[in-house]
């Protein structure tokens, strides 16, 4: 009986640690999305929005399952809100393609507009 109780406590602790990791990943992923959004506005480069969509999703997803979850939920909410505001569904779908490319670890440099170099972390 003690062995079963000890096993249950151990499993509960492991699950709690896993849950905490996912929460931390999600919070970090949300910050990655905010950073990419701020960098997009700072770059102020016409046609670069798809690149920054992908970069935020890539950075968030690289944190693990929690970061990937946060990136997907934030991206979905943003596109839903944009459509409520009147943006065409086709624009949202192109943004979502960029989001998926980033989350899936694709080559996001293909989304850079002509003449723009890939930003570096300074």
UniProtKB/TrEMBL annotation:
It comes from Hyalella azteca. One of its GO terms (cellular component) is extracellular region. The keyword Signal applies. Pfam families: SAA. This is Amyloid protein A. Keywords: Signal. Residues 1-19 form the signal peptide. Residues 97-106 have a biased composition (Basic and acidic residues). It comes from the Eukaryota. Residues 85-122 are annotated as: Disordered.
């Amino acid at each position: 009986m003690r062995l079963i109780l000890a096993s249950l406590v151990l499993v509960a602790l492991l699950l709690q640690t896993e849950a905490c990791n996912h929460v931390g990943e999600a919070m970090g992923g949300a910050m990655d999305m905010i950073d990419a959004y701020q960098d997009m506005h700072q770059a102020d480069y016409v046609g670069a929005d798809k690149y920054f969509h992908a970069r935020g999703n890539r950075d968030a997803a690289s944190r693990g399952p929690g970061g990937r979850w946060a990136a997907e939920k934030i991206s979905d909410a943003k596109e839903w809100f944009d459509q409520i505001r009147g943006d065409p569904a086709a624009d949202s779908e192109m943004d979502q393609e960029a989001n998926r490319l980033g989350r899936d670890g694709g080559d996001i440099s293909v989304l850079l507009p002509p003449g723009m170099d890939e930003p570096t972390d300074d």
